[in-house]
Design brief:
The protein is α/β, with parallel strands linked by helices and 254 residues long. The structure holds adenosine-5'-triphosphate.
Length: 254
């Protein structure tokens, strides 16, 4: 099966200098790939490269088998959506307006969203269980609600692959769980999701595959169980890490 997103010999960085090289990622439908790494390892740089916002230092990104470099912004938007961090938004947009931006991403630059786009935006809000927030101002929502609105925007874009920048950062326990469940539901519906996290426990609970991105290159990648070992995480963060598995099978790192 053609992966939704893949990389071949990808090196990412700035000004022609690679932060990380030799990335061979493969994101099939229905999978969550979590990128873990210390501050400054290059997770955001990788995501910006996968989104086509900065060029690779070497290698290439393939979207549904097609080289990203040959696709227009609109073709990229049809296949890949970005969910940024839910930072406080000073603008007085309603949640529905934000989601409409996703629904309109495939329209031409001068086209205005019409009834089909509004219906798609409402359906996305409904799917995430927040249709009642459609008219709420984004600035008045909680961090968790804002994150769900941004995921709804990506869904309204109807791209199969989603890139999420620390989607559960700064969320409380309940919202973290809610957003985590939404991510697993999306994978269950056939989306492929790449996300970053600073929480190994949460990553282990959410992901099908992980990429451990160290300051000097990839430390390991593959399944959660085989990759998230105490030794690999100790190397990744430069501190002693122990791993435990609870009775339910969930992994915990200390
Ligand atoms: N536009 C830029 N030009 C040059 N260097 C940059 C640029 N953006 C980021 N960097 C550098 O690239 C390195 C990786 O940054 P990046 O933001 O990708 O890391 P990160 O893993 O996402 O970190 P964090 O976990 O703190 O978000 C850092 O050393 C950063 O200073």
């Amino acid at each position: 099966m053609t992966p939704l997103l893949a990389t071949r010999g990808l090196a990412v960085g700035h000004g022609g200098r690679a932060l990380i090289a030799g990335l061979e990622l493969r994101l099939p439908p229905g999978q969550v790939l979590c990128v873990l790494g210390p501050n400054g390892a290059g997770k955001t740089t990788l995501f910006r490269t996968l989104l086509g916002l900065i060029p690779p230092v070497a290698g290439e990104v393939l979207l549904a088998g097609a080289p990203l470099a040959q696709l227009s912004r609109r073709r990229i938007a049809a296949r890949l959506a970005h969910v940024p961090q839910a930072l406080a938004n000073p603008f007085a947009f309603a949640a529905l307006d934000i989601v409409l931006m996703g629904a309109a991403a495939r329209l031409g630059p001068l086209a205005r969203p019409g009834p089909p786009e509004t219906a798609r935006a409402m359906a996305a809000l409904q799917r995430l269980g927040i249709a009642d927030l459609a008219q709420a101002r984004i600035g008045q929502l909680s961090g968790g609600q804002r994150q769900l609105v941004l995921i709804a925007r990506a869904l309204a874009q109807q791209a199969a692959a989603l890139i999420m920048d620390e989607p559960t950062a700064s969320l409380d326990f309940a919202n973290r769980r809610r957003v985590g469940q939404a991510i697993r539901d999306l994978a269950g519906a056939g989306h492929g999701i790449i996300l970053s996290s600073h929480d190994p426990d949460h990553a282990a609970a959410l992901a099908d595959q992980v990429l451990l991105m160290g300051r000097h290159g990839v430390i390991a990648s593959g399944t959660v169980d085989g990759t998230m070992t105490a030794a690999n995480l100790s190397q990744l963060y430069g501190i002693a890490v122990s791993r435990q598995q609870d009775a339910g099978g969930a992994l915990h790192f200390r």
